[in-house]
Design goal:
The protein has 318 residues and is mainly alpha-helical. The protein contains 16 helices and no strands. It is flat.
Length: 318
C-alpha cells in the first residue's frame, strides 16, 4: 500500500455520514448493546430508566470506538479482503488519522460518561474491554496466532457483564455465565465464517485456524466448542436469571447448535466445495440467531420476573 492509505484518496468521493457510521461497526454494536441490555435487565436490582438508557448509550459509543480503532489498525488487512475492501479507510473515504482521532475521542468519552452515569467499576470494565479488543486482539493476537479469535473473543463477551455492573457495581456468577456463553460461542461462529472465507484470510495474511491448521482441524474444534457451550448455556437455567422458559428454549437451541456443529464435523472438503459451503454458511447464520435467542430468553425471564409473572424458580436457582 502506498502512503495514500494514511489519507483519503484524491479521486475518492467525499465521505458521507453513513461512512462514519460504518466506521463504528454498527452491526457489532447492535449485538453489544443487546447483550448489555440483557445483563442490565437480568441484574437482581433496578436502576432509574434514565441511568439505564444513558449507560447503554455509553456502552454503544464504547463499542463504536473499538470498531473505529480496529479499522484504523487493520486497514491493510481490510484492503486485501473482499468482504472488507469497501470499508471507509481502504476505500479512501476516511483517513486513518481521522479514524484514530474518532476512536480515541469516543473511547475516553464513553468511559468517563459511564463512570458519571453509573459507577467506576462498570466504566473500568468498559475501558478494559476497549483495550482488550484494540490492543490484545487487533494489535497482537489477530496477526500472531490461530487462537486469535479464542482469546480475543473475550472482548465481545464483556458487554453483559458491563450491563450487570451498571446495576450492581460488581460481578456475580450469573454475569460470568453470560460472559462464558459468548466466549464459547465466538470460536465456532467465526471459524464457520473462516471456512468459507478461507481464501480471504489467507490473502490478508491472517492466521485464522483454517489457514494454519486446515479445514479438518477447524471442523473438529467447532464441534468441541459447541459441546462445551451446551452445559454453560443450559446451566444458566438453574441460576437466578434463568427459569423454566429459558431452560426449555436454551436446551432446544443448544442441541440444534451442537447438531449443526456435528454436521459440519462430518463434512469433507469435496462436499463443501461442491455446494459452495452452503452448510457452513447456514451454520454461521444460525449461530447469530442462536446467540440472540439465548439472550432473548434471559430477557424474557427478567421481564416476567419484574412483572411478577415468573414461573416458580428451579431448585438449583435458590
Amino acid at each position: 500500500m502506498s502512503d495514500t492509505s494514511w489519507t483519503t484518496r484524491a479521486d475518492a468521493p467525499e465521505a458521507q455520514f453513513g461512512d462514519y457510521v460504518t466506521l463504528l461497526k454498527p452491526r457489532v454494536m447492535r449485538l453489544v448493546v443487546f447483550t448489555a441490555l440483557v445483563g442490565l435487565a437480568a441484574a437482581p436490582m433496578a436502576v432509574h430508566p434514565v441511568i439505564a438508557f444513558a449507560s447503554l448509550v455509553c456502552i454503544a459509543v464504547g463499542a463504536g470506538a473499538s470498531g473505529a480503532l480496529n479499522m484504523w489498525y487493520d486497514w491493510d488487512i481490510d484492503a486485501r479482503m473482499r468482504r472488507t475492501a469497501r470499508r471507509p479507510i481502504p476505500a479512501g473515504l476516511v483517513a486513518r488519522e481521522e479514524a484514530l482521532g474518532i476512536g480515541l475521542t469516543l473511547s475516553v468519552f464513553s468511559v468517563v460518561m459511564l463512570a458519571l452515569f453509573a459507577n467506576p467499576f462498570a466504566a473500568a470494565l468498559l475501558a478494559f474491554t476497549i483495550f482488550f479488543y484494540v490492543v490484545i486482539y487487533s494489535m497482537w493476537l489477530k496477526r500472531a496466532t490461530p487462537q486469535n479469535i479464542v482469546i480475543g473473543g473475550a472482548a465481545g463477551a464483556f458487554p453483559p457483564m458491563i450491563g450487570w455492573a451498571v446495576v450492581t457495581g460488581g460481578v456475580a456468577v450469573e454475569s460470568v455465565l453470560m460472559f462464558l456463553v459468548i466466549f464459547l460461542w465466538t470460536p465456532p461462529h467465526f471459524w464457520a465464517l473462516a471456512l468459507f472465507r478461507n481464501d480471504d484470510y489467507a490473502r490478508a495474511g491472517v492466521p485464522m485456524l483454517p489457514v494454519v491448521a486446515g479445514a479438518r482441524s477447524t471442523r473438529v474444534q467447532i464441534l468441541v466448542y459447541a459441546l462445551l457451550l451446551m452445559p454453560v448455556a443450559v446451566g444458566i437455567g438453574f441460576t437466578g436469571i434463568g427459569g423454566p422458559i429459558y431452560l426449555a428454549g436454551a436446551t432446544v437451541l443448544s442441541v440444534m447448535f451442537a447438531r449443526g456443529a456435528w454436521i459440519l464435523w462430518r463434512r469433507d472438503e469435496a462436499a463443501a466445495e461442491a455446494d459452495a459451503h452452503l452448510v457452513e454458511k447456514r451454520f454461521f447464520g444460525f449461530s447469530i440467531l442462536y446467540l440472540f435467542l439465548i439472550f432473548g430468553l434471559i430477557l424474557v425471564e427478567a421481564v416476567l420476573a419484574a412483572a411478577g409473572l415468573a414461573l416458580p424458580a428451579l431448585p438449583l436457582a435458590h
